[in-house]
Specification:
There is one protein chain. The chain is an alpha/beta fold and 335 residues long. The protein has a domain of 217 residues: Rossmann fold (3-Layer(aba) Sandwich), CATH 3.40.50. Helices cover 42% and strands 14% of the residues. It has 11 helices and 12 strands. The strands form 4 sheets. A 6-stranded parallel β-sheet has the order 2-1-3-4-5-10, sandwiched between helices. It has a two-stranded parallel ribbon with strand order 6-9. Helix 5 runs parallel beside helix 6 and helix 7 packs across helix 11. The chain is globular, with a radius of gyration of 21 Å.
Amino acid sequence: MVEILAIGIGNEENKIMSKIVVTGGTGFLGTHVVKKLRERGFNVDVPQHANHDLRHRNEIQAMFRMYEPDIVIHLAAVCGGIGANQKSPGKFFYDNLIMGLEMIDVARDRGVEKFVQVGTVCAYPKHTPVPFKEEDIWNGYPEETNAPYGIAKKALLVQCQAYRQQYGMNAIYLVPVNLYGPGDNFDAFTSHVIPALIKKCVDAKKHHDDGIVVWGTGAASREFLYVEDCAEAIVLATEKYNGAEPVNIGSGSEIVMRDLVEVIKKATGFEGSTIYDASKPDGQPRRCLDTSRAEKAFGFKASTSFEEGIRKTVAWYESNFGREVLLPILRPKSK
């Protein structure tokens, strides 16, 4: 294994001198990462998807020539909830794999000082013992509904480690758990579970519905991380971590889906019933990460409680989407 020297970008002089490119920097997580980097004094560029389609090597090369980055944080991804994964598994596999593969290879060719690849908890095997430890990531096949996405992202871990071994490339790999927070995707068809439930509850309250329907049995559990906490972890890893091994990024605690629904109903003020549609998949039975490596390696520990994060997310959604004027629903007259 080629030794990788720490680049020490945390001091003020190197912050000014180091140019960082953040792909996906206008997205849900990316906006928070970019904000934190700039608050710390880093020189940050954010390529626009309309100008640089990262599925094509020539456009990636053009982007590198334009910005000449010293460090790349690769956040750009095609992702979504269970429904979106089931509808477009080929796209989720190909787009994520080809973007990462070409980004890493062009970065190697250009001699970047550091490459930060952000993976996914979906890479873990379906029946990983809880809490998930980084060394368990290869001990089985991912949960079927999001396996194409998870495997595409996991392949990039292999690429990072292979390029480190052969070329001495300082490529690190982070594994964030499910994220949530203000600015999330609240689309009814592509969103993850928390924004989907918030939208359902707010809409049901607004329409005076008696209840909501939730996918699955409610028995599965998940771990969630507030988006600003995840952004802090990525920035800390960019500053301080130069290791070959993947690092989990999470809160270190899990919640059963039935309890999650009740927390969101309380936060939104929706008092109707909950119907669980067991014909729909639960997804992975349990998710909860061992986050001790992140704390030891670069001092990250989540600081936002789940209840506080949910309150902030609900408030953001209600202020942006939850108060629009409703038009009357026209129904045909009874004969």
